[in-house]
Amino acid sequence: MKKSIAILLIVPFALFGESLTQLIELTKNNKMIDSSRISIESTKDSYKSVQNSYLPQFSVGANYQRTNKETSGVPHSRNTIQGSVDYVIYDGGKKYNTYDSYEASIEQGKNSLVNQENEIALQVTDYYFTYLSLGAQKEAKLKEIEQLEAQYTRLKRFLDAGTTTEDEVQKIISRIETARVELHEIELNIQTIIHNLEYVVGKSVSIEKGSSVDEYNSDKTQLRADLKALEYKLEALLADAKAKKSGTLPTVTINDTYARNDLNYNTNTYSSNSDDYSQNIASVNLSWKIFDFGATSREYQAAYKQYLALKSQYEYEKNKASVDLKLANKSYEIGKLKVKSAKAGLKAANSAYDSIKAKYENGIVDNVSYLEALSEKYDAESALKVALYDLEIKKANIIYYSGEKLEEFVK
User: Fold this and answer.
1) Which of 19, 88, 201, 362 has the highest Cβ tally under 10 A?
2) From the CA atom positions of the chain, what is the Rg in Å?
3) List of E strands, 96-246
């Protein structure tokens, strides 16, 4: 008994599908998004490594020497233990340019991730409402087939009674078969959408109706995350170019080395030289590449040209984004007109169907006219739902092209 109750409690919840909000949340476990997150962490680790490399470097060492012929300056054996500290005081600005490059690269990665999540959310939104549109078409087609089969049964009785002709029956059979083929095509498209969603989400899904997208009313637009990522990439490339240029400037380092020496002479003549001693040497070092046949200069020019190339691409993408937003807004306005037109079309189709159905049942119009009216009625119902779902997709496009996070507008 308890087991039966448990099954009754579990099964209804298993039958529920995912809303659009849940589907978008599931996409955050997408493998490509995981890859982007890991890439950002990798860049952060590399940056930390570079930062640590500019801190003072400590090293220790030990040395043992032995000779087959000692002299006053070379003992029979010698043990040395030493420690040293090295630090770069100045490297032509390369250090801070490198820091700037890494920081910009990290921000680029973060914005690329935000854009990737937003793009996938837009893709899932498109799949979701396309699925619902196909569902509406399927529902309309099933109703059409049901009505056609009912009319076939009715006409078959008339044919058996000799009050109608064989060609009238064959016409409706043909319409039923055509409708069934169209139904199979719709079902195939539905399965394709489901498979695409499962590929993006990473798990089996079922879809629940009821989600919608809020209308975006603000006149203010933000820079899209992908364009922000390009801006940060520009900063990184410029910093890299400056780091290359720093190779023409001097590098100053300091070093301090402490050594403990243990001298061992076998010859009595040199035994007085066997005293152990300690030594500390501090130094400031300067190196300056005066001439390298233009290698550093060309390296800088190559890096700077990469920056200029990306800058041109950025300006192009920025202008394109502005055009895309205008087109999205225009498409939305057209979508609203389509909804209005579809409502009017459905009203007209229902009115025409009711009139022709009454005439058909009274023998005033023929079977062909009735079938046409029936088909138009269900096509109009489907067209309205498709127009409404398409309008939701168009609202999502406006939100995306306005630089907003789509998931914040889904309910």
Assistant:
1) 201
2) 39
3) none
